[in-house]
Known about the structure:
Elements: H1 4-15, H2 21-42, H3 48-58
Amino acid sequence: MRDDAFNRYYYYLKKTKGRSHVEALTIIGKKVLRIAYYCLKTGTSYDPTILAQQMDLLSPSMSAS
């Protein structure tokens, strides 16, 4: 499964923040775990549109890529 928001975040970390491949994957992996934990804890389903909106709000430069 490919998620556009995670894909954009990966390239944002690589290009803008200068992270290595392993560092970027580790950061994204931690984010996936936090999302999975939240979904299990609250009983909600994963909604990729919410994630995309939050990432756009946190870093407007990501949407320019």
